[in-house]
Amino acid sequence: MVTLSRGKFDGKRGEDFADRLTQRFVSSGYFDVLARAPGGEDEEGHAVFRGSVLQANYAEDVKHHEGDCFKLNLKKYKCVMYTREGRSACAAKVQLLSKKTSELLVSQELSNDESLATQGTNEPPPAIDGEALVRKCLDSLADRFARYLAPHEVVEPVALEEDSELPSLKIGNGQLQGGQHERALESYQAAVEQAESQKLDPESLGRAHYNLAVAHAILRNYPASMEHLEVALSLCACRRWIEFSQKVHQWSGDSETFLRQQETTSPPAMGDDASKQ
After folding, report:
1. Which pLDDT does position 157 carry in this prediction?
2. pLDDT (tens digit, 9 = 90+) per residue, 185-229?
3. Which of 6, 125, 159, 256 pairs with 73 at a CA distance of 20 to 30 A?
4. In which region does residue 122 sit, left (phi positive, over 0), alpha (psi from -120 to 50) or beta (all else)?
């Protein structure tokens, strides 16, 4: 487990945003987060995360126009239609620095917009909960940064498959959940080979390929993960597998975006260092 020290977060919603990041790091099961000491950053930990909230705004307006409405008997009458729209815009900068060398490991500037519209007839609709929309906006930023650092399927848990004909799947599941990723890959591969050699039903073989896809995704080997998912889905268009395939494509896109944003710097990959802890 990687130990992070919480640094200072500037801005009006800085500490609130830091709380949201901390919650996601801790719930991932991959990070432990130390509280910030009264005088500043804690001296322990592998790395410190700090930053600032650059924007956390909310605004709303009400527009109206005359139109045609209909009674229950379908009789048309003139009415005034109101639309209330609330918009939240937020942005934050987050940095991750090595505690040992003070080297900048990750630097991200994130932004997001959230909106909600309500309607009313002949009178404006009730006010929108602007604070809830701002929280939703900041939550999205925290989720995105957490996805850059932690193995995605730990941040967003996924179910593993079991099969009574393939005991290696259950063994591999225990190894994967215990952090023995390479051994889990071997167990899942053994399950694939057993299913093929014994000509088990297609869904059993699909389960083995699906679990292999999960293990590869945890190791951030997204091409291999998508390859096994393609095989699994060709054997069974299972809803859970389809949903996981969509997640892997999203994580792969996030990873590519992150790498492009880091091309101007040459820090060590936090994910690679963390996997060795």
Report:
1. 59
2. 999 999 999 999 999 999 999 999 999 999 998 888 889 999 999
3. 125
4. left
Per-residue pLDDT of 10-68, as tens digits, reads 999 999 999 999 998 888 767 788 866 444 544 566 788 999 999 999 999 999 999 99
**Domains and their CATH numbers in the chain:** 2-150 (3.40.50.10610), 158-274 (1.25.40.10)
Pairing label, strands 104-121, 47-70: unpaired
Q: How far apart are CA 217 and CA 271, in angstroms?
A: 13
- The rounded distance, in Å, linking the Cα atoms of 9 and 42 is 14
CB count in 10 Å sphere of residue 97: 20
Residue closest to 276 by CA, chosen among 214, 223, 221, 219: 219
CA dist., res. 231 & res. 224, Å (int):
11
Percent of the chain with pLDDT over 90: 56
Distance in angstroms (rounded) separating the CA atoms of residues 136 and 141: 9
